[in-house]
Amino acid sequence: MSLTTRRTTHRLSIDAPEDVIFGLLREAAHWPYLDGLTVYAERVSGDDSIHELRISIVANGSLSSSYCRRVFDADRHRAQFRQLDVEAPFHALRGEWEIHRADGQSLVTLSHEYELDAGADVEELAERVNRNIDEFSRRELEALRLSSERLAQLLQQHSAGREA
After folding, report:
1. What are 109-113's contacts with CB under 8 Å, separation 24+?
2. Which residues pair with 64 in a beta bridge?
């Protein structure tokens, strides 16, 4: 069996501290309020450093659910994920969130890697998958930006109010 592996990378600068952004990513219960795709997310096992989630999203007009394993490196502001219940034509779907400071802001990188059956229409299928990942990643990053910046402002205002 021949497999085709593809990778995508999306980046966005966010005017918020890395810890704020990482905290929103780590706490999946916030996701239904973040990205507009997720309607339900629940940690089903594990702890704050490694856990599995059940996630339900609405994509392309239909509801789908999946299980995902996430591994966190809080010191480096990184989170790896892997979908556990992939279906054909996928053999694997995984990726990573990475956050670091750049030019006074936090640069958030979201990468995906997936493997497909290498069939006659693999190029057409890969293009369709890339379009979906591109659309979803842009939506997720923008929603994360808005939520992180809003939360950072609230935390800053709260902190300033306590100092006054």
Report:
1. 109/9, 109/10, 109/11, 110/9, 110/10, 110/11, 110/137, 110/140, 110/141, 111/7, 111/8, 111/9, 111/10, 112/7, 112/8, 112/137, 113/5, 113/6, 113/7, 113/8
2. 57
Q: What is the pLDDT of residues 42-92, one digit of tens each?
A: 999 999 899 999 999 887 788 989 999 999 999 999 999 999 998 878 889
Alpha-carbon dihedral sign for residues 90, 143, 43, 70? positive
Extract the tokens encoding 99: 């956050």
Query: What's the predicted TM-score (pTM) here?
Result: 0.90
Report whether pLDDT(163) > 80: no
Whether omega before 89 lies within 30 degrees of 0, making that bond cis, reads yes
Confidence (pLDDT) at 23: 94
Asked if residues 106 and 127 have their Cβ atoms less than 8 Å apart, the reply is: no
Distance separating alpha carbons of residues 16 and 145, to the nearest angstrom = 8
Higher pLDDT, 120 or 55: 55
